[in-house]
């Protein structure tokens, strides 16, 4: 992965540089917001780890500038706890994920991988995570090379959830997706589809959790 | 040139010309100040006034006085009929003067020196003399007789001694003389002694006169033994020059009248006219009246009071000024006057005028 | 009158509006009242003076008219008029007025006197008048007051009416009128001046307590938050009460801040001291060193959590002061919270459930979304922390009422050990941690603070067979009943 870390705290950035390099990633450091923004105009990265409190130009403005010129590079925002309401703003201006300082290194590494994976999956039409593979074009899912033999509706649901990782989807929202206008939507049928899909995905890194009374959340288990 | 600019130029030329004329006039005016002619119409002897007029002309060299003499009723008629109003009107006929003021013909004069209240009205009419009405007698005729001191005493004496007084008492003919009428009317207004006196005058076949001087002259010659209701100032002048004469103020009262002066509204020399009035009532004017005329000054006599007259007349009396007030108008009422004259003549001549 | 302000003082009108002066307002109001009063009284005085002057002098006019009428008689020769001197004398009593008169017969022909006097129609009346009529008219350049009076004379052949018209210029009347007005106005003006002066003095007197209060506040030390001891006038009592209340709250908040800082310092030092000692032990050889490193990591994690929660607490308190309230969709809030919780909760053994009001009920409250979210997050964290790995955690949003007003109960139910009844009142205190696996002791304090700042309530209840139901009941809109519970 080619990573740009924009962070003005030396202690934190040194630790991050060391750990990411230790894992074999190429990581560059910028400590100034405006300089980072200038760099991002010319160089491309797989993921940007962006602090909010930066000298000369804050993280939001950097992010806004990126999105304004159509740069869709995944961005992970770092925020301090005191900026708690900044999270919402960060996501609103187009951050893909955020982490609150202080954080666990393994966590940030996993999040970065997930972001890169998601973006590459969107680009290639094939979502790969470990032994799991989902081919959008062929509309099939493989686990360790074995076709999971998903039904048409299960494919639709899986595609929906992989596109909305980490987001709560209500039963109604799922139903809207898998039923056409002509069919009478049945929440029971949704539940049955979910149960079957979850069973077929058992053992894969893709987990769809049920939040009773609310809906479902899909997430990817790392490793 | 447009019409408009031509008009502007013309206007400028006219303005320039006007300015030039104005400057020239102003220059000439300041070089030779115009003499103001003050038209004085007066019902007072010119002789009595000449020193005062001269004094005024000396004090105000730019003013020259044109003095015209009238008798009182002529003066009234002349003023009412005048096309060219005089600047100053002087008269001894207080009632007629009040009448002119009451008609609104007079103009107020400011800053006139202080004088007694009765002798000025509305700041338009100003009395400037103070003249008692007196009794003149023939000293010889009364050499062995007591002089009357009151009106009732006089009436009593006439009644008691008809032979002595018969045809030898004189008084004004109230139909001929304005002042005479005023004195008689004022007497009548004072009470019943007056009518008694008039009655006894009639019984003594009193002679009636137009003027004070004629009356006093007849007293001097002994034609009359006394003259009742003569103008004290004029009489005093004659008495001082004639040892045969005595002059007396009756003690019950002595009428006092004032010569008054006003400025008509239509006067075209109000400034000079005001100066004239202020001069008349100034110390200088009053001193002139005292010393250089037969008249009695208002302010001097007013200041010295009773003693002023006591030093000049015999007897002592209470002075009864006739007030310069609209009540005098009562006696100018046509019916009132006709009735009064009728009654008076009936009493004094023993016959009514219609007879 | 501009008084120099002490430099550095913040002007009272920092907001840009000009301050108004109570004293000036009162003065303007009282002077205005006096002006209106004087205007009314003057108008009344003027009317009174005019009618009074007219009455007085009309009596003279009428007297003169009667005096003349009495002297008119019928004789064989015709009407005899003997004008009495007294008639005009009465009118001449006063200095400067001109007088006019005439006597007319029933046909309006002038028998004697000035023929051209204006009659204003008074002579044309039918039947001919017997009572005096007064009127003003212009004559010979002046306004003249006239009376017309008449009388029917009895004679041998037939009764004959004669009229008298007498006029007098208005000089004396106007002088009397002016005199009356002046005599009335002078005391009135004096009264007004005295009134305004007294009003001014009274206002100054009334304002004095305010100046005293101002001095008290100005001369205080910054840390002196004792209540004002001035005995305030009733009109500003509530202001003083409010100021005192404000100072009390300020005092309380200062005390709280002080104790918070003290608590935080203690907790942080303790936590960091533990971390430090673990790290020192980490240098040891062998297994002891490895254990110490693991302990140090745990301690560091606890310290981080403690720090986060302290800051969260401080933030909640801070936001409560600012009352950053808006309308919150609780369903949306819960949904976003769940996403965050699921993402952060790695083990995945916990069964989460959400209980929302059935669809037609809009689950909305006026509140601070950040604070409510933080409170809920802490409740969930507590449930996760204290419960078993397969805990069942339910977030609930239930429509209810609070003190008779619509409200929502928002909270978390778990199957953990619960809280002993004896501990329940104390767990909401800062740094009180119950049970062996106790956390920082800040979480429930945050929840309690949020409930309080929303004028709501925190309930802790046991569940059967085990577990805790922690629920904040928040009014739908806390703003109207502004008083503290």
UniProtKB/TrEMBL annotation, chain A:
Check the record and name the InterPro entries matching this protein. CheY-like_superfamily, OmpR/PhoB-type_DNA-bd, Sig_transdc_resp-reg_C-effctor, Sig_transdc_resp-reg_receiver, WalR-like, WH-like_DNA-bd_sf
Q: Which residue spans does the record list as DNA-binding?
A: 124-220
> What does the entry list under GO cellular component?
cytosol; protein-DNA complex
GO function terms (MF aspect):
phosphorelay response regulator activity; transcription cis-regulatory region binding
4-aspartylphosphate modification, residue list = 51
| GO-annotated biological processes | regulation of DNA-templated transcription
Specify whether Methyltransferase is a keyword of the entry: no
Mind listing the UniProt keywords for this protein, alphabetically? DNA-binding, Phosphoprotein, Transcription, Transcription regulation, Two-component regulatory system
Keyword set includes Phosphoprotein = yes
Which segments constitute the Response regulatory domain?
2-116
Start and end residues of each OmpR/PhoB-type domain: 124-220
For this protein, the record's Pfam families field holds: Response_reg, Trans_reg_C
Protein's name according to its UniProt entry: Response regulator transcription factor
UniProtKB/TrEMBL annotation, chain B:
Q: Name one Pfam family in it.
A: SBP_bac_8
May I have one GO cellular component term? Answer: outer membrane-bounded periplasmic space
Q: Does the keyword Membrane apply?
A: no
Extract the SUPFAM superfamilies matched here. Periplasmic binding protein-like II (SSF53850)
Keywords (A to Z) from UniProt? Periplasm, Signal
Q: Where are the transmembrane segments?
A: none
Q: Which domain of life is it from?
A: Bacteria
Matching entries from InterPro entries are given as:
SBP
| Entries under PANTHER family matching the protein | PHOSPHOGLYCERATE TRANSPORT REGULATORY PROTEIN PGTC (PTHR30006:SF25), THIAMINE-BINDING PERIPLASMIC PROTEIN-RELATED (PTHR30006)
The entry's protein name is ABC transporter substrate-binding protein
Give the originating organism: Jiella endophytica
